Amino acid sequence: MHYTGQIAQRYLFSKKHISLISTLTFISIIGVTIGTALLIVVLSVLNGFFDVVQGYLLNYDPDLRVEAAGTSTFIQNQELTDQIESLPEVTLLSSYVEGKALLTNDGGENKVVEIRGVDTESFRQLIEIEQSIKSGLFDVSVRNRKPGLVINEQLRNELDLELGDEVALLSASAMRRTLTQITSPRLYRFEIRGSYELEQIGGGAQIFIDITAAQRLFKSRDAISGIDIKITDSELAQQIKPTLQSKIGPEYKVSSWYDLQKALYDVMYLEKWGAYAILMIIIIVAVLNIVGSLTMIVIQKRRDIGILITMGYSKSAIKSIFRKQGLYIGLIGCIFGGLLGLVLSWLQLKFHIIKLSTAFLIDAYPVQIQLMDVAIILLGSLFLCIAASWMPATRASEVQPANAIRYE
């Protein structure tokens, strides 16, 4: 029976004296430990930022969205609604009309703004806008023959508007007709009923009006721009998307919350795995130390290797001794590095040790520990350590026992 494991441990962790080999082995373990811990901490922080950004974006973005495939608007029909609602995960539908318009007020200041016409009841359930109302009410209904409008708080301050003020909206299509035809544009007047404040990652602030008023403003009659869909769990959106697409056909386009902000999410994933690749360099440096220390062990133990071969140890057994040394270094570094990384991540998650400046949307670095990421880091580090032992193990198996014993 070959005691390759015991021999590997004795070569690595001999207590007789501290040599250059044992120092290099210790440095290798420290390098793997630090690299593994840093990878876990950095990836957990990047996961935390992804979670924060996703949370803010989902304040606006639905879980799924249905739009026309070839045009900007389409006519909503009962058959389409029934097909969408046939999915058991769907809990809410909210139609909308959107477009750009020129906003003018009595002060003479004009500004191009994003208009979104919504169905009040379903929209409130979709993004819980009531919690973000800064002043007034979310009221876009018609009162005293005046339709209501809800404006972004920052935009309201910028235009120096107050609750109860009247503003006029002019759609882009109406402005084009004014330039091409000898007609005066029709302005639609609205009363400011409330202002809201939602943290936004990207895009311009929107102004909300009633969906019927938006259809009149944009001359879309009974057409809508799309249907926002809320489901039981946002994480199921990517799974449900192809099923819904097959149900409603190619004349419609289905987008998940990820698709709506795909460029931003892709950049964040690229940053995450780019950081993984860069920080793996620390482990690669430690791996080079493993190659050096194991090569020196092979040189130092040539006589022992020769004796083992004459005792009947095969080439594969000799290789196993040195590969197990790489495995042991990797296991020790991964265990201590994994524990250190998880502890540091947990401390930041629990106590918010490292703070951010007040200019950020959050007060401390966010952390989200994902077990899959931890597994990928540990397996990647362990694989590199085992791979580092391949060359020294091959060199050890090629030792000629007669020459090794004769000249030692």
Task: Describe the structure in your own words.
By secondary structure, the chain is an alpha+beta fold. The protein has two domains: 4-57 and 264-406, no CATH class; 64-257, no CATH class. The protein is 54% helix and 19% strand. It is built from 15 helices and 13 strands. It has helices spanning 4-12, 20-57, 78-85, 120-127, 153-159, 172-180, 211-217, 237-248, 257-260, 262-300, 302-310, 315-351, 371-388, 390-397, 401-406; strands at residues 64-68, 74-75, 90-105, 110-118, 133-136, 142-143, 146-152, 166-171, 188-196, 206-210, 223-224, 226-231, 252-256. Strands 1, 3, 4, 5, 6, 7, 8, 9, 10, 12 and 13 form an eleven-stranded mixed beta sheet that branches. Strands 2-11 form a two-stranded antiparallel ribbon. Helix 1 (4-12) packs across helix 12 (315-351), helix 2 (20-57) packs antiparallel against helix 10 and helix 10 packs parallel to helix 13. The longest helix is centred in the last third of the chain and has 39 residues, at 262-300. The radius of gyration is 33 Å and the shape is elongated. The two termini are 26 Å apart. The mean pLDDT is 90.
